[in-house]
Design a protein that fits this description.
By secondary structure, the chain is an alpha/beta fold. Helix content is 30%, strand content 23%. The protein has eight helices and nine strands. α1 packs across α3 and α5 crosses α8.
Amino acid sequence: MHSKEQISHDEYQKAADWLTSQTRHRPQVAIICGSGLGMLADTLKSQNSFAYSDIPGFPQSTVQGHAGRLVFGELNGKTCVCMQGRFHMYEGHSLCKTTFPIRVFKLLGVETLIVTNAAGSLVDGLHIGDIMIIKDHINFPGLVGFNPLTGPNDDKFGPRFPAMSSCYDKGLRCLAMEVAKELDVAGIMQEGVYAMVGGPNFESIAEARLLHCLGVDAVGMSTAPEVVVATHCGMRVFGLSLITNKVGKSYEDSDSVNHEGVLEVGRLRSDTVQKLVTEIIRRMEINNNTNNAV
């Protein structure tokens, strides 16, 4: 199911044309809001919002904590589009459906993608409530053939064999640390490696130990496919993981993680994440993908 479905360029274009006809906003920045972080969209000025169910070709979000709408508006002088709720492989969507919005954003003129997610910490130095700037990822589904770029390549979007060695923009990562210092939240922020697993179950202890051995700092069930597609079509990418739980690596641990706890940490840290992303967007230069962040 995951590898065979193909989406034509015309289908992406149809969704982009529909959105262009419905709103005057022409976004330069797209933000994907992870579990419990949908409030980012509420800060946009002059909003237009659309339920996913109304947009041609868009899949539906089925996860608690994901509102399922696209919100356009202005944020600190930049035109943005926010996804309140993303799509996951574990919901049964093919990966080309999961990443469908990214290529629509590209056709709308988006140059920079900001991805946020909720993730579990695998290292002692990352605590619940900390924010991890993603410097790199391990895309486990991708390593075994579940890749959104599987199938014929669409040369209008990007090359057949795109490099992923610098998919998280260094300039934006440096800018984020500067902003964190100014907002006095540098103490809860650090860079790290994110791993995507398929889900929807949380990791077994043996799996957690394996991830830890591989140098993974935080693990979640999203983000990598969107980043792969955004990088393929030439967007700058900046990613943040909100650490919502500790992943158990010992058989003696009695704590177990649940989705309600994840959402609760999202609510507690939402204000900090919002201020951080808002200020990064304010300071970011929009200059046609020349990769100069500041």
